[in-house]
Amino acid sequence: MKVLPEQLRLYAVTDSRHLQGRTLLETVSAALDGGATFVQLRDKDCSPAELLAEARALAALCHTRGVPFVVDDDVEVALASGADGVHVGQSDMAARRARALLGPDKILGVSAHNAAEALAAQADGADYLGCGAAFVTGTKLDAHPVTAETMTAVTHAVTIPVVAIGGIDAGNILQLQGRGLAGVAVVSAIFSARDPAQASRELRALSEKL
Q1: Residues catalogued as catalytic
Q2: For a tag site, which of 112, 127, 150, 155 has the least CB within 10 Å?
């Protein structure tokens, strides 16, 4: 298995829109200081050249810390930057195509909203799944929350680890207990925080209770 469940405990998904005057690299470094165990670069607003530069910098940082790093959606940038892999959604590149381009050794994460999508993603070569939205989220306005029953069905349908994503923060994370999750993927609760290291520290401690 290329991704261990414990590596997905606190999965930080970047958001460059709310950095509170910090650089992206500084914020990710702080998140790692606080206990983030996995990092995904997601930046829909920058140019391809900027995305590649960000990916290279974050890949170097994460590898120094021994933490897996993937790029959202863009297989070319993932491969060119030295990232460990890519994460694709249901409306992005098909998981089977992404796996073919990545080869067998890179990490492939796939978003799944129900058990059928989860099983298809696993069959197509996914190493882990992101399931959500866990709660109403301001990060993705078109993401609709999935029920506790649906999320539990996803984790029980597959043998690969699953993380919840969408609107998760320190105030609601423990509502996800008992669903069979490996961890949580968090965006604004880290990247909008005044102290990303402390926010990550608190989230990491809570994530260990899932």
Answers
A1: 42, 111, 140
A2: 150
